[in-house]
């Protein structure tokens, strides 16, 4: 898979994963949801820090690629699963931690996503969302239906409305990519939002 090989992308993903690990402080007994796991790069960095990871994605190809990686290393505590917001959540357990890296901008209804994430978390649970600041539509090809980044205050308000508390956002990495409008290499800032479900 292309982005398992690009050093810049791997470095950025590592920075996001380390920031997520630092700010969620898992103790080893948690059940974690990685929403939009892709090739599982972030999930794999949580491997020895939690008990079990459900790695969901809407793409079968991504999940097949991830399963091959897991088989190659005999990893059984990460479970790839085809699932997305809007599908029946009854097949999912309750989670202590949810992580979402560079995927929320692909979900059409952000308020619905916030409500579903809230319902999937146990009381006392924590969510970590990494995504792009507003990017003027330059970080993706125009034919891709995505949000063109998020205004941090607006996103915090959406998650507050869904029930989350103690919400914090700060910058954690940048995505280096050619602008889809100008072709010029740009650095797109990435934030990490942490939010809690009260006990
Ligand atoms: C940019 S990749 C990020 C992958 C991984 N989280 C990372 O940071 O390396 C976005 C992933 O979200 C998945 N995706 C897109 N729309 C989705 C949706 N509505 N629900 C679940 N996954 C989705 C894509 O298939 C892709 O694997």
From TrEMBL:
The keyword Cell inner membrane is assigned to this record: no
Pfam family, one: Methyltransf_12
GO molecular function: methyltransferase activity
InterPro entries the record matches: Methyltransf_12, SAM-dependent_MTases_sf
Keywords: Methyltransferase, Transferase
Domain Methyltransferase type: 33-127
SUPFAM superfamilies reported in the protein's UniProt record: S-adenosyl-L-methionine-dependent methyltransferases (SSF53335)
GO biological process: methylation
CDD domains: AdoMet_MTases (cd02440)
Protein name, per record: Methyltransferase type 12
Protein species of origin: Methanosphaerula palustris (strain ATCC BAA-1556 / DSM 19958 / E1-9c)
